[in-house]
Amino acid sequence: MTTASMEAHIKDPDFVLRIDNLESFYGPIMAIRGVSLVVPEGRVVTVLGANGAGKSTLMKTISGVMDPQKGKIIYRGTNITGMAPERVVRAGIVHIPEGREVFPLLSLEDNLAMGAFTRSDGAKAVQEDLDMVFSYFPILKDRRHQQAGTLSGGQQQMLAIARGLMSRPKLMLLDEPSLGLSPLLVREILTIIRRLNREQGVTMLLVEQNAKAALDVADYGYVMDLGRIVIDGTAETLKRSKDVQEFYLGVQTDSQRGQKRWKQKKTWR
Amino acid sequence: MDILQLLVSGLANGCIYGLIALGFVLIYKATEAINFAQGDMMMLGAFITLGLTNTGYMDLPFWIAVPLAIALMGVFGYLLDLIVIRRMFGEAQIAVVILTIALGFVMRFAAGTIFGHEPQSLETPYAGQDLRFGGVVLGVDEAVVVIATVALTVVLFLFFNRTKLGVAMQASSQNQLAAYYMGIPVRRVQSLIWGLAGVTATIAGVLYASKGSIDPSAGLLGIKAFAAAVIGGMGSLPGALLGGIIVGVIEPFASRYVAAGYSQIAPYLLLFLVLVFRPHGILAQVHRKKV
Ligand SMILES: Nc1ncnc2c1ncn2[C@@H]1O[C@H](COP(=O)(O)OP(=O)(O)OP(=O)(O)O)[C@@H](O)[C@H]1O
Ligand SMILES: [Mg+2]
After folding, report:
1. Distance B184 CA to ligand 2 centre (A)
2. Could you say which of A88, A111, B94, B264 has the lowest number of CB atoms within 10 Å?
3. B167 at A interface, C-beta within 8 A
4. A70 and A109 fall within a common domain
């Protein structure tokens, strides 16, 4: 352990993840502009923000798919900044990417097996986790021989989460799991995420555009805008904050909604 | 009877085309590059085996020389990707293609320098032996080609579907980004696929050299195998074998029944027809390509 990481370890005994002043680029485009945040052990932390705020870039930088130009990522006292994705997965962080990204021609079962690719703790342990995963997503069990590409969008999202769980993560990075799902399914998926957090002890970093749904399951939230964190607070505080709702979450407050209804009336023939 | 023999010799040739085509498809699926040195890797594998086993060279027993050559070419393919091809990462596809064409020239030149340009035959324990079924005479060499191809197909099928590494190879070629997210070392997997292409090329080379002879320009056969791969559907392993067999079987019949000179174009005519009427090949795996 380096001195720096030791120091971090002593300072953040119960932070699973601590990010300091992170900067990431796509060529000349700076997508992350000095982001700092912490994720406490055993919690659900959400990162909210509009399109293009840099949420996915943040996730990719944590999981090692992208290297940051500046800043530090400390995971359980170890500096993992710029570490290769396979080492990050082995260390216990799994990234469930935006848009599911299943292996379309592999069976669902083989997709799950690929989730366990980095594991070397034996077939028995993997089988136990497979049973665990199927207990959360029974629908996947019925379809385990089906090609993943033929699943519905919601089922693919469940598979993506299940596949991530197969790596036995301590920290799960979930990038917009609700994208394109029906409101009912959004609720179901987020409930399962909360249960996985409570029952399996997986700490969650949840990126969402569906702010209301995310704040319902999260303990703490950060709001990103143009590559920066602009507001943070407990989920309760953020939910109540009118600023957050109007300016960053696109949630309509009562007055706005009233106005909209009035406008609709006006244009009604 | 005559037709049966034409069929068998076509089948044997077709298996060899199919095995080379397999190499094209393996690399294409994994890296989206086309390795035009695949035929030359076949030639090189054959010459390495020949160098290990023929009298006058190293004189090792055939059944030791073959696995040794396979292993050497596996390592060669792996290192070729690791040291040369990977440096082209991010370059245009055409640059990689030209590089592989150049590599083919280098291999041909190297083989010519070491082994000379005269055709040589690989000494096998079964050379010149025949099998007789009633009136039908089959060369053992041709039977070995077919049996070895079937065996290799079964082994590859089991490898790709039942082993973790095999499934990971499929996964990496279907969705490279997701493979990274799952902690699959994608780069190493790609190098291993180049290694596997070296292995299949060597097996094809041994079979080819054992039923005829081999010279440094034998790798030009790769063009025909490439046509076979396209006919079968560039993204499909079974398609590659099928395409190879179709091309192999068409050839002897074309040269028997079509005027000389025209018969040679039969495989390419077929390629043309397939591209026009079934542009993704016979056994195409149609799925949307991820970036
Ligand atoms: N591959 C890329 N190449 C260049 N620029 C990119 C790339 N991916 C993202 N960007 C840019 O980086 C910025 C942040 O993108 P990012 O995907 O992180 O946003 P996001 O918050 O995840 O948005 P969304 O909610 O739409 O998923 C955007 O301005 C985007 O245009
Ligand atoms: Mg995003």
Report:
1. 22
2. B94
3. yes
4. no
**HSE-up of A119 (CA within 13 Å, CB side)?**
24
Same domain (yes/no): A118, A211: no
The pLDDT score that the predictor gives to residue A212 is: 87
Here the CATH number for the domain that contains residue A212 is 3.40.50.300
Residues A154 and A126 in one domain: yes
User: In this complex, do A95 and B285 lie within 8 Å of one another by their Cβ atoms?
Assistant: no
* A54 Cα: distance to centroid of ligand 2 (angstroms): 7
Please state the ipTM of this predicted complex: 0.86
DSSP-derived secondary structure letter, A147? B
Residue A61 and residue A8 in one domain: yes
Residues, chain A: 269
Beta carbons of A232 and A222 less than 8 angstroms apart: yes
CB-CB contact of B6 with B253 (8 Å): yes
The pLDDT assigned to A10 comes to 47
Mean residue pLDDT across chain B: 91
B111 contact partners, CB below 8 Å, separation of at least 6: B43, B44, B47, B216
Q: What are the domain boundaries of chain B?
A: 2-218
Residue that terminates a domain, selected from A142, A168, A194: A168
pLDDT single digits (tens) B188-235: 999 999 999 999 999 999 999 999 899 999 999 999 999 999 999 888
Q: Which two tokens stand for residue B204?
A: 């094809």
Packing angle, helices B186-210 and B164-174, rounded to 10: 110
Task: Looking at the structure, tell me whether residues A148 and A189 fall in a common domain.
Answer: no
